[in-house]
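Worked example 2:
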Amino acid sequence: MENKELEIESHPWQPFIPDGAKVLIMGTFPPQAKRWSMDFYYPNRTNDFWKICGLLFLGDKDALLCDDLKTYDIDKIRALMTEKRIALNDTVRKARRLKGNASDKFLEVIEPVPLFGLLSEMPGCHAVATTGEKAAGIVAALTGTEIPRMGEMTLAAVPPPDASESPVQLEIWRMPSTSRAYPLAVERKAEYYATLFRHLGIL
């Protein structure tokens, strides 16, 4: 089957932007709906993102799970992200799955997210953190920067909404992938995210 015959999928969620957002965390693209345990970012039960947040902010990697330990508590997650002023979106707006799975390796990017337009909606946000290699590459391409090493950041100039103003300096951080397929223990991944959140005054 040629690529043009494959379904083009649109991202299922609006950006999550709490008041006073300090950081925008960006993955690549959600898995297929059949793999979701909830209708929100990082929905796969085996993904480590909400375990990392539970561990760092609540002292328990299972703190954001529902009582059945099979699904996540969306209300609790939204409240935590709002409290910590963490915005969420992904780097891809439209994509094709070349192999019908969630692997970034076989994801064809049709349309990336309009990053600068998104950032204009959160004027207090001067940091972007990517979760995984492909997301890091997309943000680097959108900002004309080099991909930073794991756990480190680079700087980019963001065009201001008002052309008469000076460009805003943006920190672009590269975090480990939160996919279970990425070979790093959740506690070790959490150490990288802790460095980011401490730097931003969130942790």
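Residues 186-199 form the longest helix (14 residues). The longest strand covers residues 168-175.
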